[in-house]
Amino acid sequence: MAPQGDSEVNAVSFVLNGEEHTVSPPAVPLDMRLVDYVRYHVGLPGTKVMCREGGCGACIVVATAPDLGGGGTRTFSVQACQLLVYACANWQLETIEHLGGRKKGYHKIQQALAGFYGTQCGYCSPGMVMTMAGELGRKGTVTSGEVEGALDGNLCRCTGYRPILDAFKSLAGDGAPALKQRLADIEEAYKTTCPRTGQPCAGKLSDGTCRSQAGTTGTTAKDGTTTLGGTTTTGDALADARPSVTAGKERWFHPVSGVGVMNALKMATPQDKVLLVGGNTGAGVFKNDGPYTMFISLAQVPEMQQVNIAESPIKLGARLSLNQCIDVFRSVCEGPKAVAGYGHLKEMADHWQVVANLAVRNNGSWAGNLAMKNRHKNFPSDVFLTLAAIDAQILVANAATQQPEQHPVLEVPQLDLRGKVIVAMLLPPLPAGTRVRSYKITPRAVNAHAYVNAALRLLLGDDLTVKEAPRLLFGGLGEHFVSASNTERYLIGKRLSDVSVVREAARLLAEEATPHPDPHQGSPEYRRSLVQCLFYKMVVGVVGGSPRVRSAGDKIVRGLSSGQQSFDETPDTWPVGQPLPKIESLVQVAGEAQFADDVPLAAGELHAYFVQATQACAAIDSVDATQALAVPGVVDFVTAADIPGKNSYFAMDMFGPVKPDPVFAVDRTLYHGQPLGLIVARDRATAEAATKLVKVTYSDIKKPVVSIQEAIKKDRLELPIGWDGKPASSVVFGDQDGKGLMEKASHRVKGKMEVPSQYHFTMELMTARVMPLEDGYDVIATTQFMQETQKVVAEVLNVPANSLNLTVRRLGGGFGHKVSRCNLSACAVAVAAAKLRRPVRLFQDLRTNMSSIGWREPYYASYEVGFSDTGRLEAVAMEVYSGVGHVPNESTAVMASNIATNVYFSPSWTISPQNAILDTAANTWCRTPGHVEYIAFAENIMDHVAAELGKDPLEVREINILNIADEKQPADGGPNVFKTSILPVLKEKAMLEQRKLEVEQFNRENRWRKRGLAVTPMKYPYDYPPLRYGILVSIYEQDGTIAISHGGIEMGQGMNTKAVQVAAATMGLPMQQFIVKPTSNVTTANSTVTGGSFGSDLVCQGVKLCCERLKARLDAFKATQDPAITWPELVKKAILADVDISERYWPNTSEFPKGYTIWGGACVEVEVDVLTGMHVIRRADVVEDAG
């Protein structure tokens, strides 16, 4: 880093992938995050970006930093989207590119993930790998439990975690022998044994040297000083308060002592906004706290990393990370280093283990967490609550007075910390008899803020009398409530074994705990009940009780997971159907797989960011971008006035007439978040910042309709389009006189059910890049439907379709999200590129991605069911409403109704579908669109009937399962495979009868914990729609290698791998002979949407036909040649003989395979804590006949 002495160097340095990097403004702004530096400045796109909140794990890198408290260094995983570049001074950083790759050899972790089939789209894979690399670097060895815990901040939207966990557990010290053997087989397959050491290859460094010979990157002296670029820096050499980096009014300080921190704080002016930089992980929670003008790094202040457990109270420095504190807590609460009076720190360690996620805990400091609580009183900080409960104190240094201050942690929300810095915390020992319990009730088990959290401390006598004022602290109730002081005073001297005392305490808690209404935090009633229930849980945990009641005192704990998979294999068809890692899996785990935003920036390329409406239903009076355009680096503001063609990004008319869906709003806004325009600037950060300066005024603001129930009340309903292209008022299966049958039914019940919307959560966000050319435009877009993207961009630009060149290498997940919604960004960027005649890129962030475009349709159904005394259905009538958004272009209300009966028979099913028009973004398809909802309605009806009759839900289901002889509903004519095959297997494999008895016994024996066991069937008709994918198979004369180009979109489903398997089997050649090229609208023009799992089947059929024709031609030519001719020789001679060695196929729908039905069944056991709602899935068994 830049010395703070006499040198005027305006820069800091660190090591990245073994090379020294020196950064300075203006090239690297002072607030730049590491993820942007490595991706866009260094050109290392293997580190992905998605949430920019520290919650998804896509951006994980490994850091090695000086450990000023323990000496030497410490290695850990960290989120590059939170880490500020200038905070990395003197650090060593490693990205996925440095760990391993094609040129250096793949690391063992990468091989494991690929070999265990742990990738699909591959967007999350580099982050997964680097998390494990960081954890192995931090601990040396890991257990299987630690593997599961390490991935608490890594999201995978495609694969599911079983193969990922299996891959990494094979690296664990206690990994199952079968997993370890499988890993050994994978290593053998990759032939990665090091000839020098005999150990698995660790990869190579960027200079080509063996990693096992080179050791770690950079060097660290034994005294903790760091050797960087040949210069050794020490604390004494850097102890000055001048800023190390300055850019205008902004400056960074890197003090190396507490005095240096004080001196830096004293330099702040009233106009400065100061950030004391620890891990900067709070930026993922509170995104609008900046911008800052002063950054003061605490990373090199030794006293802030000190740990003193030799004296009482224990003293921990402010820059210690949460994980460092957890390690201290565990060491002093039990084991050989246990310290008397600190047994309660085990409870603290367990609680802090579920704060945020591993990477946040690795770098986020406890003091930074308290500082967040100080700035944001309503932040439900677990750190604050648990420390306050044990009477922890903080030491604060005051820059103005130069005097130390000491405060109880409980006072943190009220403290004025301006011009001050937290230096350390003091943890006093607690007397014998002290009981500490803490709780965190969350929507997810990990990586989530609490609905309500609690930290409770009681000092009890032998007779369970409360000897002194307890601590009853609660979070999540609002910024003004923390301590239940009335209840605390009441409990002094009371005996907890007295039931009346507990009841009165619970009453007082309900009286003084008044949760503030917050739609994100659950209802006030629920949160108030949690306050009472958590107190009761502690009482039961301390006092005990009858065996039936005792479960109230326990927490729901998720045990170590495991999974098994079995499937039928047909070796005689291999490589078709052979279980193999995807052909892209290794490049995915190495970060070498290229996604849309990974494409290198072109010369002069600009970046765009949406300006969005902040009112949903309002007249737009004015949009003033004057201030935004004055920002240095801003190039233009693009609006609807700049569109040369149609202002709509939807043109898909395959399901009937369409309504416009504007690229940019005109006159009135249609929904909150609708784009009003596009700021275009030289870099993404400038574009984003400038959007906040665009001034928009509104009038005639109306309350938006955002729920289906509201739409029904306001009669904002439309009939959906049926299969015949006409409005459909009803869909009837069976007897048309459903009303008459309903009136004759022995029993009738009515009910309602809602299935809310769902964000698709693709790991790769919407991205588009448009580059003007001499004859048109190159378009890169994250699209599942290239033909539609080509069509709407051409219509928006008013240019011919042949002027657009589109390519898609792969998508980081699709799920229907990128069928049509991707075209908003593609069209917007195209308008900007056409206007400016420069390349323009838009890589949406999570906020704009979630607010500018629609999600899965929400559904609402009201139903009436007629049934017999046994529960057999006699008539079913459903009114089904789809919340389509502001236009109904992609309603599934009719399309999915063919699955409404699921596996069940009723003499009559009457479905009345309607579209509910909402003032939201137009909703769209999402993974089996509409089908999930209709199956949910059918299953809810079964449960309702069972509850009405007091019968076992499975018994009612079995009574109503469609028989072979039953009238076709809907028509498929085949046997009910669920009844004949799947349910018997499921009952056996899931040990259903035995487990039903076990569940019943458990529920009898436990009042406050209950288990449930449910069986759910599935019937999914799979008929090929008229989707067409062009195919081109080309053999190359030089060496006989073969390239496949197809019109499908690879997005993790393994389409390319299946195509190669089919081609290899058909041609009789090894798979290594084939490669799949990116999808292009030139080689496979007019290909339709990839979705609904149809793409892989139809692409493979096309590839097969192409290869059969090629093989037939070459076999005929080979018959005229020497039988011993080799394949490369055959190809060379064939082309000289004018044999065409390329083949194109365009589908004929009459050649499509016959459709079939996919059947499945699941048996799931769940355990729920009745007092809190926390739950865990104990076991899931799934059986599927895939057709």
Give me the Rg, rounded: 32 Å
Mean pLDDT, all residues: 93
Question: Hey, roughly how much beta strand do the residues contain?
Answer: 15-25%
* Unreliable residue runs: 1-7, 195-200, 204-208, 211-239
The N- and C-terminal alpha carbons lie at a distance of 62 Å
Q: What structural class do the secondary elements suggest?
A: alpha+beta
Number of strands: 43
What's the arrangement of strands in the largest beta sheet?
A: 23-24-21-32-29-30-31-40
Helix content: 25-40%
Number of helices: 32
What is the 3D shape?
globular
State the major sheet: 8 strands, mixed
GO molecular function, one term: FAD binding
Main location: other
Binding site for Mo-molybdopterin: 784, 815, 927, 1092
Domain 2Fe-2S ferredoxin-type: 10-99
In short:
The chain is 28% helix and 22% strand. The chain is an alpha+beta fold and 1187 residues long. This is Xanthine dehydrogenase.
Features:
1187 residues, disordered N terminus, iron ion binding, 2Fe-2S-bd, FAD binding, iron-sulfur, 2Fe-2S
Describe it:
It is built from 32 helices and 43 strands. The chain is 28% helix and 22% strand. It starts with 11 loop residues before the first strand and ends with a strand. Strand 42 and strand 43 (1175-1185) form a beta hairpin. It is an alpha+beta fold and 1187 residues long. Helix 3 packs antiparallel against helix 6 (162-169), helix 16 runs antiparallel to helix 17 (524-543) and helix 26 packs across helix 27 (953-960). Strands 23-24-21-32-29-30-31-40 form an 8-stranded mixed sheet, with helices on both faces. Strands 26, 27, 28, 33, 34 and 35 form a 6-stranded mixed sheet that branches. The chain has a 5-stranded mixed sheet with strand order 2-1-5-3-4.
